[in-house]
Specification:
Elements lengths: L3 H9 L3 H7 L1 E5 L1 H8 L5 E6 L12 E3 L2 H7 L8 E6 L11 E5 L5 H13 L4 E5 L8 H7 L7 E5 L1 H6 L5 E10 L9 E5 L8 H4 L4 E4 L14 H14 L1
Parallel strand pairs: 2-3, 5-6, 5-9, 6-7, 8-9, 8-10
Antiparallel strand pairs: 1-4, 2-4
Helix pairs in contact: 5-6, 5-9
């Protein structure tokens, strides 16, 4: 039977301060949980309707019923299993390749999609401003569909990081140069800005090359692309070169 202490712990992990306090986060769904179990992430506990896991995790598994799963799930339609994993220690930033830098991305769905995009296009690291949404937010973890196991996120002072970076720093702006006509490097930092306000003025000063995705249609009612959609187009063009 699911204990009250377990319910209290799991529900608390919806909030960043408790994730930091316990150094734990939640993963839901068979596919995502299996992805994390195959990775270097360390599992703390697995709550499941049926044991679909190997004997390697026998001591971590607790069989629960559907009503109990509904009590601890953050999903409208719980998917068979919920697991708790340990937040890993921070590794060193490797800026010798192409990396994405996020300037105050607020929406968990956008961050999750950007993580999946970086995984798809072979980028292994994302640099985040300290006020970007936490990558261990349950909504972010869910939307990454396991890609968080292959892409590392670093939360740091973005201004300080870019100031000390000696390569190309690309920034996405409405008034930037057409990305399809711009010279693009295989190494550099691509800065993506906040959903509402774009790249902040202090970061804009550090951009060495402003780029833009041109609009080919009538854009009278379209202010800009969604940040995740823009990231997909930009990464595709960088990787196409």
């Amino acid at each position: 039977m699911l204990s009250k202490n377990n319910i209290k712990l799991i529900k608390s992990l919806e909030h960043k301060k408790f994730r930091i306090q316990h150094q734990l986060f939640v993963v839901e769904g068979l596919k995502s949980v299996h992805e994390f179990l195959k990775s270097d992430f360390q599992v703390e506990k697995i709550f499941t309707l049926t044991n679909n896991f190997t004997n390697n995790f026998e001591d971590k598994i607790e069989i629960i019923n559907e009503d109990e799963l509904k009590k601890i799930s953050f999903l409208k339609a719980p998917n068979q299993v919920l697991a708790i994993f340990k937040i890993p220690s921070i590794k060193k930033i490797d800026s010798n390749n192409l990396v994405v830098a996020l300037d105050t991305i607020n929406d968990p769905g956008n961050l999750g999609t950007i993580i999946r995009l970086c995984d798809w296009f072979g980028l292994e690291q994302i640099i985040c401003s300290k006020d970007t949404v936490d990558c261990y937010n349950p909504k972010v973890v869910q939307s990454t569909m396991g890609s968080l196991t292959r892409v590392q996120l670093f939360y740091t002072d973005l201004k300080e990081f870019i100031s000390s970076y000696d390569g190309h720093v690309y920034g996405t702006f409405m008034e930037g140069n057409n990305i399809y006509e711009s010279e693009l490097s295989k190494k550099g930092v691509i800065v993506m800005g906040n959903e509402a306000n774009g790249i902040s003025p202090e970061i804009e000063k550090l951009i060495t090359q402003k780029i833009a995705i041109p609009a080919f249609g009538k854009q009278h009612d379209t202010e800009s692309l969604n940040v995740a959609t823009a990231t997909a187009i930009i990464l595709s063009e960088f990787k196409r070169r």
